[in-house]
Amino acid sequence: METQRDSPSLARWSLLLLLLGLVITPAASRTLTYREAVLRVVDSLNQRSSEENFYRLLQLDSQPEGDENPNIPKPVSFTVKETVCPKTTQKPLEECDFKDNGLVKRCDGTVILDADSSYYDINCDEVSVPFGLEGLMGWRCIEHPMGQLTTVASRQRKPLLPWASPST
Questions:
Q1: Mind listing the domains of the chain with CATH numbers?
Q2: Contact yes or no for 98/58 (Cβ under 8 A)
Q3: How far apart are CA 143 and CA 138, in angstroms?
Q4: Distance CA 45, CA 57 (A)
Q5: Cα–Cα distances in Å, from 85 out to 19, 55, 91, 124, 146?
Q6: 31-61 pLDDT, tens digit each
Q7: Quick check: pTM over 0.85?
Q8: How far apart are CA 60 and CA 154, in angstroms?
């Protein structure tokens, strides 16, 4: 008879353990998107930089095809531009406007898409063409709905001197 009394208690414990197992899910690592990983790198670069103003993502090259394993380094290429926000600001970076004639840097390297990893190997260099002269050099800017600018090569190159254009 004692076993009959214990069996409801055992059933309750089993049910309780089952419910706890459903409620407490194992901590699975989350995979970042390509864009999220790059934004995380930009934040880290801003924190480590000795420059006065923050930089914001200006252009993100498309993600290369390849291995889907988030723990394998992925190649990245992106461009950042100096903003008007000093590092002392409390504003979210997305609310910082790009600085007129601000420095533009081209960044290349690798990142890991695993959210638990903070690995990245990025090298950023200043763009040699002053950003304000991109129209003269055959470049133009495209503004996306999210307020980001993308610099692309213009299909129609404008001559630097109007009188130097070829006659038809």
A1: 34-126 (3.10.450.10)
A2: yes
A3: 17
A4: 11
A5: 49, 9, 8, 20, 18
A6: 899 999 999 999 999 999 999 999 999 999 9
A7: no
A8: 18
